[in-house]
Known about the structure:
Elements: H1 40-45, H2 55-70, E1 77-78, H3 79-89, H4 91-94, H5 101-111, E2 117-118, H6 120-132, H7 135-141
Antiparallel strand pairs: 1-2
Amino acid sequence: MCGCRASVPSTKQYSVNQPAPASTKKSPSAAAGMPKRIPIAKQLASIKALGKGSELEKAFTTAALVYNNSADPEGKLSKAETKSLLQTQFWHFIQGQENKPKYQEIISALDEESENKIDFEDFMILLVSLTLMSDLLQEIKNVKSTK
């Protein structure tokens, strides 16, 4: 199970701040004594059912793998971990959004109540919300698909 529910979508709001400079970021597996993580590309390749999967299926599988690699044993992320993951893995979609009221509302929600955790369903809703308000989405829409 992915933690998804067949109910009305969550109305929770989330957010992220500017990413930390690359020099200050450390991989969770970089800590002493932690096993080295298998790269996402290798994890994706190991899923035999996706051998002939579509680009969309592979994209969603990649998002699930990124989430699962960061989630706790219960399959959840703290709000701080969510924020960090977005800053390192979703930066191009959140870049330039800092002054938008909706983005600020999402940001403040991740800064509040640090005890609450984010499940996979809410994480995906967060990704979609941030994508829809992103300036990058307009650029993507303008890409020509034919000559």
